[in-house]
From TrEMBL:
Family: Belongs to the FUN14 family.
Function: Binds directly and specifically 1,2-Diacyl-sn-glycero-3-phospho-(1'-myo-inositol-3',4',5'-bisphosphate) (PIP3) leading to the recruitment of PIP3 to mitochondria and may play a role in the regulation of the platelet activation via AKT/GSK3B/cGMP signaling pathways. May act as transcription factor that regulates SREBP1 (isoform SREBP-1C) expression in order to modulate triglyceride (TG) homeostasis in hepatocytes.
Entry's Gene Ontology BP terms: autophagy of mitochondrion
Pfam families: FUN14 (PF04930)
Annotated membrane topology: Multi-pass membrane protein
Predominant location category: mitochondrion
Keywords, in A-Z order: Membrane, Mitochondrion, Mitochondrion outer membrane, Nucleus, Phosphoprotein, Transcription, Transcription regulation, Transmembrane, Transmembrane helix
InterPro entries found in the cross-reference section: FUN14
Entry's Gene Ontology cellular component terms: mitochondrial outer membrane; nucleus
Name of the protein described by the UniProt record: FUN14 domain-containing protein 2
Length: 147
């Protein structure tokens, strides 16, 4: 029996992006604000359409999640009432109190981890650079939630 060797082609993304200017323009982290690339009308349309789609999907998923959680809670109550399951309410109360204490502990410090702070700073910088796109997205999102 002959031994067959598989050969794999490897793609070096660093080299690939050097040879593709469009790739750098789209995906480079320092690609700049959308204001440098698109006019105001285009930014509003892009922001509005993506915002509307996001809002519409968010609304539909929210309804589905609320139905699932409510239905699950309803089924658990029926199962508890009919005796299929037994809930240890003392244990539930103890765990809820423990969670409250942890929330109080974390919120009293008001300290953000460096990773979270750097991400928040990145988002704020993006929002400042792309204020028209962000405004269009917010408006579209609200329209999507309403429809």
């Amino acid at each position: 029996a002959g031994v067959k060797e598989d050969s794999f082609n490897m793609l070096d993304l660093a080299e690939y992006t050097k040879n593709r200017p469009w790739w750098r323009k789209v995906f480079a982290p320092s690609s700049g604000s959308s204001a440098e690339k698109y006019n105001v009308a285009t930014q509003l349309v892009i922001g509005g359409v993506t915002g509307w789609c996001t809002g519409f999907i968010f609304q539909k998923v929210g309804k589905l999640a609320a139905t699932a959680v409510g239905g699950g809670f309803f089924l658990l109550q029926i199962a508890n009432h009919t005796g299929y399951i037994k809930v240890d309410w003392k244990l539930v109360e103890r765990d809820v109190n423990k969670a409250k204490q942890q929330l109080k502990f974390h919120s009293s410090g008001n300290k953000m981890s460096p990773e979270v702070k750097s991400r928040v700073d990145e988002v704020i910088i993006f929002l400042k650079k792309n204020v028209i796109l962000t405004g269009g997205f917010a408006g579209g999102f609200l329209l999507g939630m309403a429809s």
